[in-house]
Amino acid sequence: MADLPVLDGAGLRALAERSAAVTVACACNEAALAAWTSTPLSFPESQLEDVGTLYLDPYDEPGFAEYHPHGTRYDSADAPVALRHFPYNRCNIATCTVCGRCYLRYTEAGGYFVDRRIRALNRPELVSEASA
Record's superkingdom (predicted)? Predict the structure, then answer.
């Protein structure tokens, strides 16, 4: 994680715009990933390459406060991508090496489980730099 560049809102928006412009068919785009979901078993994770992170400091535990000014929820497809809020403050950004689509990813670690979560990064209008 330390070798990945920390992205700001402009950088994240640029990746979202690039991802939104991809129209080719690809195995990474077969599942509906508009909202946060557990990474499907059929998702081709081997095609992804991490290109950036939203983790500001790998030695600091980011908070769990979410950002939903318009009544969205964690699992809403139109929830803001709020860089400094949960779960985005724990995310890496990955690009599909086959088609160029971008995804937000983080690992949810509960008491008895670990769950890799994923969300497509293809709606630049949802990127928010609201402070924590």
Answer: Bacteria
Question: Is 2 inside a domain boundary?
Answer: no
What's the pLDDT band for 118 if we cut at 50, 70, 90? very high
- Beta strands 48-53 and 92-96: pairing type? antiparallel
- Domain residue limits at 39: 9-128
Q: CB neighbours (10 Å) of residue 87?
A: 20
- Global pTM reads 0.92
Which two structure tokens, joined as six digits, stand for 28?
A: 């990474």
Residue 1 falls within a domain, yes or no? no
Q: β-strands 81-82, 127-128: how paired? A: parallel
Strand locations in the chain (E): 37-38, 48-53, 81-82, 92-96, 102-109, 114-120, 127-128
Please give the tally of structural domains in the chain: 1
